[in-house]
Design a protein that fits this description.
Length: about 180
């Protein structure tokens, strides 16, 4: 601690005096942890080269774990996927890319219009939840109808999409997803 200067009165006392402050008798029982300086910088998420629009992916977690979905759009760290709902019950939804495993199978999604689906579209509206739900259902049926009509000519496509993977561990799914995609087409 720094010494303090004190005024001293009297003719023979010099006017001021420097006084050393007493140190505290308290000391920590253990060393005080000093947080390390973080040198990491937040980076923008990279777009995946495998999860491009039209790729069939397997969901690894969530209520639709093990189901095959069609990737429609990349939205930063998230991807927009659909079942289609008619085939395997997966609605139009956003999924984190870490929880989707790309397969080698691809479907043409050029005719599907996904321009209006962004983060603002999926935010919950507090005023009219019922009306917003109806709008989302209509949009889901439009997208699914377009996607379904594109995949009907492909042999076994609906069977492949409706098949649920029985493996939960990611390493087991990685071993089998490429084999399954090659045998179906």
């Amino acid at each position: 601690m720094a010494p303090t200067t004190k005024q001293i009165t009297g003719a023979k006392n010099g006017g001021t005096r420097t006084i050393a402050t007493k140190q505290s008798k308290y000391y920590p029982a253990e060393k005080v942890a000093v947080p390390k300086k973080c040198r990491k910088v937040a980076k923008a998420p990279r777009t995946s080269t495998k999860l491009v629009p039209g790729t069939i992916a397997i969901l690894l977690s969530g209520p639709h774990r093990g189901k095959r979905v069609v990737v429609l759009k990349q939205m930063g760290a998230l991807i927009l996927v659909t079942g289609p709902y008619k085939v395997n019950g997966v609605p139009l939804r956003r999924v984190n890319r870490r929880y989707a495993l790309a397969t080698q199978t691809k479907i043409d999604v050029a005719k599907v219009d996904v321009a209006k689906f962004d983060d603002a579209y999926f935010k919950a509206e507090k005023d009219n939840k019922k009306k917003a739900g109806l709008v989302k259902t209509e949009d889901n049926t439009k997208v699914d109808h377009t996607l379904y009509s594109n995949t009907v000519p492909i042999r076994y496509a609906h069977l492949y999409a409706s098949y649920t993977s029985c493996y939960v561990g990611q390493h087991k799914i990685r071993d089998t997803c490429n084999v399954l995609s090659e045998t179906v087409y």
